[in-house]
Design a protein that fits this description.
Number of helices: 10
Radius of gyration: 18 Å
Order of helices and strands: EEEHEEHEHHHHEHEHEEHH
Keywords: Amino-acid transport, ATP-binding, Cell membrane, Membrane, Nucleotide-binding, Transport
Number of strands: 10
Family: Belongs to the ABC transporter superfamily.
Number of domains: 1
Helix content: 25-40%
Largest sheet: 6 strands, mixed
Strand order of the largest sheet: 6-7-8-3-9-10
Pfam family, one: ABC_tran
Strand content: 25-35%
Shape: globular
GO molecular function: ATP binding; ATP hydrolysis activity; branched-chain amino acid transmembrane transporter activity
GO biological process, one term: L-amino acid transport
Distance between the termini: 42 Å
Bound molecules: adenosine-5'-triphosphate
CATH class: Alpha Beta
């Protein structure tokens, strides 16, 4: 029998609590993402998905708990340190530089290539590879100004800019939210393409259908607490969880 090592854990979150001012929003949130996985953090509006991402990135002043990226504790680090350690973040508001071109926006995100602990190369991105992944960006050409793109195109540029940092893991906040159905389809396609190239993704999502298309596993949040954890098949079979905590 061939012995296979289990895939290493990229992200480990334990006992994560977070506050906005005096408002306690996350309560002992815990989960993990392994190398090569696409994991969905699910829950309705206001469940705490974006807050979890902000807490992971060090963007919330008041937070408590342990966050480890490839075994290294990042819970006390600044957002820029965390990004440089290889945790990529595509926020919900998808901010791009509207007065910079597509090519310039990509350069803003560039970081050196990374290696896995076993010294094999981690996924490495170039503008050319990203243009191949997003034919829309390619068609517009590298000189198109960010401000002259649709919301969905800007979303693709934000994802591409994050990938230019060659992250070990990408946090993708609500990829299907507020974009046209054709772009939603392209986002699903993109996530599967990234997965096939070895990119690991934690996405926040309230659309069950979208999450089922692209994810291996899911965690379900409600009122800042994890209420369910399991495979997509287990979630599909669990009427109770779907009815209580998700919009189907
Ligand atoms: N800046 C803020 N100040 C105070 N409370 C906030 C702030 N941002 C979010 N909240 C509250 O924190 C809770 C969790 O919000 P969060 O944005 O994390 O939810 P979400 O699951 O990402 O939902 P959405 O899809 O609406 O983004 C909500 O009750 C929300 O009202």
């Amino acid at each position: 029998m061939i012995h296979r090592e289990p895939p290493p854990t990229l992200l480990t979150v334990e006992g994560l609590n977070a506050w906005y001012g005096a408002a306690h929003i996350l309560f002992d949130v815990g989960f993990e993402v392994k190398r090569g996985e696409v994991v969905a953090l699910m829950g309705r509006n206001g469940a705490g998905k974006s807050t979890t991402f902000k807490a992971l990135m060090g963007l919330l002043e008041r937070r408590k708990g342990t966050v480890k990226l490839m075994g290294q504790d990042i819970s006390g680090r600044s957002p820029s340190q965390i990004a440089r350690m290889g945790l990529g973040f595509v926020p919900e508001d998808r901010r791009i530089f509207t007065d910079l071109t597509i090519a310039e926006n990509l350069e803003v995100g560039r970081q050196a290539a990374r290696r896995w602990p076993d010294d094999s190369p981690a996924p490495e991105w170039t503008p050319q590879k990203l243009y191949d992944l997003f034919p829309n960006l390619k068609e517009m050409g590298p000189d198109r100004l960010g401000g002259r793109m649709s919301g969905g195109e800007q979303q693709m540029l934000t994802v591409s800019r994050t990938l230019m940092g060659n992250p070990y893991l990408v946090l993708l906040d609500e990829p299907s939210e507020g974009v046209a159905p054709v772009i939603v389809e392209q986002m699903a396609h993109m996530i599967l393409a990234l997965k096939s190239q070895g990119v690991s993704i934690l996405l926040s999502e309230q659309n069950v259908h979208f999450a089922e298309l692209v994810s291996d596993r899911a965690y379900v949040l409600e009122k800042g607490q994890i209420r369910f954890s399991g495979t997509m098949a287990e979630l599909a079979a669990n009427e109770e969880v779907r009815r209580s905590y998700l919009t189907v």
